[in-house]
Amino acid sequence: EVVMTQSPASLSVSPGEGATLSCRASQSVNTKLAWYQQRPGQAPRLLIYGASARATGVPARFSGSGSGTEFTLTISSLQSEDFAVYYCQQYDDWPGHTFGQGTKLEIK
Amino acid sequence: QVQLQESGPGLVKPSQTLSLTCTVSGGFISSGGYYWTWIRQAPGKGLEWIGHIYYSGKSYFNPSLESRGAISVDTSKNQFTLNLTSVTAADTAVYYCARVAVRRWFEPWGQGTLVTVSS
After folding, report:
1. What per-residue confidence (pLDDT) applies to B40?
2. Where do the H-state alpha helices sit in chain A?
3. Segment-wise mean pLDDT, segments of 10 residues, chain A, 108 residues
4. A20, B22, B90, B95: least surrounded by Cβ within 10 Å?
5. Which of A43, A99, A100 is the closest to B109 by Cβ?
6. CA dist list (Å): B6 to A60, A90, B77
7. A with B: how many residue pairs have Cβ under 8 Å apart?
8. Which chain B residue has its CA at the smallest distance from A39's CA?
9. pLDDT at B80
10. How many angstroms separate the CA atoms of A99 and B7, rounded?
11. Using the beta-carbon criterion (under 8 Å), do A46 and B107 form an inter-chain contact?
12. Distance CA A80, CA A58 (A)
């Protein structure tokens, strides 16, 4: 099983500032990495797939990068609606897709 | 576009069987090309993949749940169903259904349904 580790567990940022979230895989997943946003009481929403491609309707302030075992989600100029929990997920290891434990982005 | 909706009891007694159905609209499970998935999230916790099923019935299950779980598909109703036996409080979670292609991401997701295991 590919273990996904996200850091930090939580991050406090002021609106308008940027945030960088990290995700590490226990073995290479190439670029088969997705990021999801989950707001309270809602289902996860796909933000990024293929490590860097934005899903339909995702604002340009969200960007993903990385390959192999190290990945980053960057959010520039945080808006109020961006404060949520973010999960990375690998899909290289079919069928056992695994998620990171999440990073909670909080308002400072 | 494709939409998914979970349904089933919100309360299950310990040792009984949890049974949830996901109804797909806006597309047909029998069209192929995608697997249909169950994922769960315990209160305040992260996301756990449960299993996938194809329209043919071919399925995969999380090894940690395989001994208690099964997923079935009914293409005539455009639904797939999760059964999890011998539940305990540890199975209390929001259960989501989603669509996935092989070596692809989960998209879309259902809204989720909370199942509480309690006597």
Report:
1. 98
2. none
3. 96 96 98 97 97 97 98 96 97 92 95
4. B90
5. A43
6. 31, 24, 14
7. 53
8. B111
9. 98
10. 24
11. yes
12. 15
